Amino acid sequence: MRPDCFVVHYHEIALKGQNRVFFERKLRQNILWTAGKLGIREVRLLRGRILVFPTAQYDIDGLIAALKNVFGIAYFAPAYKAAQDPDAITEIALKLADSHTFSSFRISTQRAKKTFPMGSVQLNSHIGTLVQKKTGARVDLKKAEFTIFIEIFDSDAILYCERIEGAGGLPVGVSNTAAVLLSSGIDSPVAAYKIMRRGVNLVFVHFHSMPVTSAASVENTKRLVQRLARHQKKAKLYLVPFLEIQQHITSLTPPSYRVLLYRRMMMRIAEKFAFKNKGKALVTGENVGQVASQTLPNMLAINEVAHLPVLRPLAGDDKQDIINFAQKIGTFAISIEPYDDCCSLFVPDNPETSAKPDKIMEYEQNLPIDQLVKTAVKETEMIILGKNGKDSAKQNG
Ligand code: ATP
Ligand code: MG
After folding, report:
1. Which ligand is closest to the CA of 243, given by its number?
2. In the structure, what pLDDT confidence band is assigned to residue 390 with cuts at 50, 70 and 90?
3. Are 286 and 315 in contact (CB under 8 A)?
4. pTM above 0.85, yes or no
5. Nearest bound ligand to the CA of residue 216
6. Taking the chain, what is the end-to-end CA distance rounded to the nearest angstrom?
7. Which CATH architecture best describes the domain 177-396?
8. Ligand 2 midpoint to CA 316 (Å)
9. Residue 385 belongs to what H/E stretch?
C-alpha cells in the first residue's frame, strides 16, 4: 500500500508552552527545505503532530531518508487517510492487517475529535475483533508484534502501523547561532552534531596551515560540513589561514606552550566569525583529559580569551562512545581519512598540561595579537555549502 501522507510526532516541542507555535513553524520550514524537493504538496500543522502530504509522484525512500535528518522529529510514520467514519477506518485497518504478518497485535486509537460516533475503546475492540477473525492472531495490549495506530482529527482520520525513529532534538534555528571550531578530526564533527540537534544553527570555522600542510584537511572539512548540512539549510564554512600565526608563535614561545597559544588564537578568531553571524556561543570537540591540551587548567586558559560561552558537548564522553556516535552519524569515515593537522606543526611530544597564567602573559606579550587576528579574518575564505554541495558560493570572510 502506498501511503497518502506521513504523520510526524515530536516530544520536546510539546513541552515548550507558549513557544510551541514558533517551534512548530520552524519544524515545518525545516521539513520543507530538507524534503521539499522530493515532492511535498503540503505540510499541515495539527494539534501535537504534523501531517506531510507528498505529491502524486513522490519518491518514498528518498522522503523517508530526508525526514530522518530533520531534528525535532521524535518519530514519523507512513500513514493512510480515511474518511471520518468507523466503516471507512475499519476497511483500511483490515487492509493494513492483510499486508503484514504477525502473531499478536493491538489497535491503538487517539481521538482528537470528541464528537466522533465511537469512543476509542469501542473502536479498538470493534476493529480488533475483525482483525482477529481475519488473521487468527491474538490480541496483546502490552507486547504486540504489530500495532495499528488510528488518529482521528477534526477533519479526517489517519492510520499507520510502522513508526520510524526520527533524529530527535529540537528544530535547527530555534536556539540561535553558534560558531563551531571544526578540525577534520573525529571529535569536533560529533560536537557540532550534538549542538545542532539542540536547535542551534551553526557556522563552521576551520584553521589550516596551507601550503605547508596539504589541502587534505580543508577537503575533508568541506566533506564533513556537507554531511552536517543535511540537518541545516545552508552551512557557512570559514577557512582561516593559520600558518603565519603559527610561525609567529613558534618564533616566540617554547614548544610546550605552543598548542595552547594556537588554541587561544583560534578562539579569538572564531569568536569574530561568531559575532559576524550574531552567534551566542563557541563550540569545540574538547574532552577532559583526552590529550595534554585538554586538561582543566588548559581549558581555563583557552576560555580566558573568549567573551562568549564555550560549549564542549563531549567534555565527559569516553573516546569509544564518541567514535560510535561518529560512525552512526556518518562522519567517522571522513574524519579518519589522512590529513595533516595544523596543530601538529612545530609542537613537541610533551606539551604543558597545567598552563601558568604568568607564562602565557609573558609569551603573548610580544605577539601582535590584534594585528594577527585582523589579518587572519581578512584573509579567510568563506564557502557556503548545501547538503548536496552544489549550491556553494565563495567570498571573503
Ligand atoms: P578533534 O577530533 O575535534 O580534532 P582532538 O581530540 O583531535 O579533537 P585537538 O586536536 O586537541 O583535539 O582539538 C581540540 C578542539 O580544538 C577540536 O575539537 C576543535 O574544536 C578545535 N580545533 C583543533 N584543531 C582545529 C582546526 N584545525 N580548525 C578548527 N578547530 C580546531
Ligand atoms: Mg584534532
Report:
1. 1
2. very low
3. yes
4. yes
5. 1
6. 51
7. 3-Layer(aba) Sandwich (3.40)
8. 17
9. strand 381-385
